[in-house]
Design brief:
Distance between the termini: 36 Å
Largest sheet: 5 strands, mixed
Helix content: 40-55%
Radius of gyration: 16 Å
Order of helices and strands: HHEHEHEEEHEEHHH
Number of domains: 1
Number of strands: 7
Structural class: alpha+beta
Shape: globular
Number of helices: 8
CATH architecture: 2-Layer Sandwich
Strand content: 15-25%
């Protein structure tokens, strides 16, 4: 079984939501990149998650949201646009926090669980995980996963360790 088949099975994506969403973005030339856990998976051995976090180019967020709303369920929150589909447990979150808006410009094509996608550069993926790990409003279990992802990235790319705040490095010991 291919990695993409395993992931689609895990997220019970019987509606081909993943392929449809990616195709819609590509057909409409929406510039985006994968971040967060799946972004980490583009650089290190993958872990399965029901989430797919994306950043869309700032000037295309409204267009992307409008196009996605024609086919999928779209909910807007303070720092994200969440997209879901009937027949799939895949949870897509489009980040709207301005700190992420430069990420798509620096992204490169990577394999993410068997799907070729634009992925934020490793330094940007790490930065996003650092922001998440220090966000006191996030659930503690999510912040622990962020720490694990930081640790996985630093193990694979030791030069990144100097980018991680000491308070987070202390939690990795």
């Amino acid at each position: 079984m291919q990695a993409l088949d395993v992931w689609k099975s895990a997220v019970m994506d019987q509606a081909s939501f993943l392929e449809g969403l990616i195709a819609m973005l590509a057909e409409n030339r929406i510039k985006y990149c994968v971040i967060d856990g799946q972004g980490v998976n583009g650089y290190v051995d993958p872990l399965i998650s029901l989430d797919l976090d994306l950043v869309v180019a700032a000037d295309q967020i409204q267009l992307a949201e409008s196009l996605l709303a024609e086919r999928y369920r779209v909910e807007r929150f303070s720092h994200s646009v969440n997209v879901s589909a009937e027949g799939s447990s895949l949870r897509v979150q489009i980040q709207t926090d301005p700190r992420y808006f430069d990420f798509p410009d620096r992204a490169g094509e990577k394999d993410v669980l068997g799907l070729r996608s634009p992925v934020a550069q490793v330094e940007d993926v790490l930065q996003g995980k650092i922001w998440a790990a220090i966000d006191e409003d996030r659930r503690p279990s999510k912040r622990r996963k962020d720490l694990l992802d930081i640790e996985r990235l630093v193990e694979a790319f030791p030069h990144l360790k100097s980018s991680v705040p000491q308070a987070l490095l202390d939690k990795l010991r």
